[in-house]
Backbone:
């Protein structure tokens, strides 16, 4: 099972790329105060494994705890499991156990810092954990440069209870960075500013701007779980519910739907995850039910390899079969459609007549001889007509094709700034607000109350 989930989460991890990439800057404008009284449209997005929706609103990032670009070398392993205790959204959560010195968590890009009213996550740590929140804001005067204000704030999660971390309300220490150089700006115009919130920066620099919020935990190396990631901006509030992989079990058409009693027949099944990637290293259960009875029983437990399961059965009576993938911490269960294998009484009946011939002649001889002079021999009984062979039953249609496996593997972190133009000569004048922690979060689930996933780093570029 471990290998199968590893392959499945590796496939979806490509969709969970962690790239602090270009957040389109907005034109300089008058100060736009954060309007807390506006009711936002609420929605929930269920994230299967690490398959976050495409776009820049929500993904996972890995950054340094002391400096956003200075990370400790490691390949985080994600674990999907139920709880701990009662998860704040759905049944499961995503867990990490980092080496210490890095912070991992949700990363969101916004086109308007002033309209961002909520950003963060709900976290649990059995022994407590520490973390850091990084925020970015590009003031109107810097729109056509690579300069962005980076804010840093330390956070902590107490032991043994789910705790909400809200990034918008934190007070940050601010430093201006040049994202092309990935270094603080040293000239006089970038002198330090007082600590303050994101809203304070909008007022202080007289205008709205694009930005990002990255909330990470695990700086002390303690294990933690996270769920209910949230972003509310521009009138839309979205909660991201982190859940296990969804699966689909299928029964393929058998080679014969009618066999002789005890004659072997091969049954094939398929298992894919919610991305369509074939699963391996897990097991499926082949269940059976004799026609006319109730309740399903286990026929066989079969290893799944490359999304395929194969079993041989030899029914003595007409029997229905189906494949079941049992629910587990890292994945939800699924059941295939059922197929019924009919059983004929004699060998080779699958190819023989559908009705048995009559047992005797159509008319028997007279009980006594007739009164005529010589006994008249009774006519030989006429044999009944041989029945015509019935055509073999057509097989039930199976799935037209098995889903293709998703791409897997992680990408290496980018060292160039992720703006609409690359650093250096010829770059466009529109810089992106983006200390890009750029790397994919690759999942490799384990079986614990979790499935391991390989998370690569978030690389402010």
Residues:
């Amino acid at each position: 099972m471990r290998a199968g989930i590893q392959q499945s989460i590796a496939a979806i991890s490509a969709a969970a790329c962690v790239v602090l990439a270009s957040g389109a800057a907005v034109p300089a404008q008058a100060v736009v105060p954060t309007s807390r009284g506006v009711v936002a449209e609420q929605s929930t997005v269920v994230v299967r494994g690490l398959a976050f929706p495409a776009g820049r609103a929500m993904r996972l990032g890995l950054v340094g705890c002391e400096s956003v670009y200075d990370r400790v070398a490691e390949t985080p392993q994600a674990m999907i499991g139920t709880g701990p205790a009662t998860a704040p959204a759905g049944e499961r959560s995503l867990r990490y156990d980092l080496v210490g010195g890095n912070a991992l968590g949700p990363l969101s890009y916004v086109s308007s810092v002033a309209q961002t009213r909520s950003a963060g996550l709900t976290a649990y740590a059995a022994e407590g954990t520490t973390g850091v929140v990084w925020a970015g804001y590009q003031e109107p005067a810097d729109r056509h440069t690579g300069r962005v204000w980076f804010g840093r704030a330390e956070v902590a999660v107490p032991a043994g209870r789910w705790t909400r971390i809200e990034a918008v309300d934190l007070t940050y220490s601010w430093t201006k960075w040049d994202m092309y150089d990935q270094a603080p700006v040293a000239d006089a115009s970038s002198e330090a500013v007082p600590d303050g919130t994101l809203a304070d920066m909008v007022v202080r620099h007289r205008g709205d701007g694009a930005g990002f919020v990255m909330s990470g935990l695990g700086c002390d190396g303690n294990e933690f779980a996270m769920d209910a990631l949230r972003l509310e901006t521009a009138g839309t509030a979205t909660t991201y519910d982190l859940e296990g992989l969804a699966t689909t079990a299928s029964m393929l058409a058998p080679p014969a739907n009618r066999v002789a009693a005890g004659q072997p027949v091969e049954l094939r099944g398929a298992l894919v995850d919610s991305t369509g990637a074939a699963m391996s290293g897990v097991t499926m259960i082949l269940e059976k039910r004799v026609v006319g009875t109730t309740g399903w029983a286990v026929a066989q437990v079969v290893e799944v390899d490359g999304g395929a399961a194969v079993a041989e059965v030899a029914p003595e009576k007409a029997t229905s079969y189906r494949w079941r993938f049992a629910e587990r911490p890292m994945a939800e269960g699924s059941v295939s459609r059922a197929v019924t294998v009919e059983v004929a009484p004699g060998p080779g009946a699958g190819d023989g007549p559908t009705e048995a011939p009559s047992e005797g002649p159509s008319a028997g001889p007279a009980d006594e001889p007739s009164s005529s002079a010589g006994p008249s021999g009774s006519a030989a009984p006429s044999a009944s007509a041989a029945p015509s062979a019935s055509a073999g039953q057509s097989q039930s249609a199976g799935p037209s094709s098995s889903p293709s496996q998703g791409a897997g593997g992680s990408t290496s972190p980018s060292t160039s700034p992720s703006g609409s133009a690359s650093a250096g000569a010829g770059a466009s004048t529109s810089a992106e607000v983006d200390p890009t922690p750029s790397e994919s979060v690759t999942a490799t689930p384990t079986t614990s109350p979790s499935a391991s996933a390989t998370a690569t780093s978030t690389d402010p570029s």
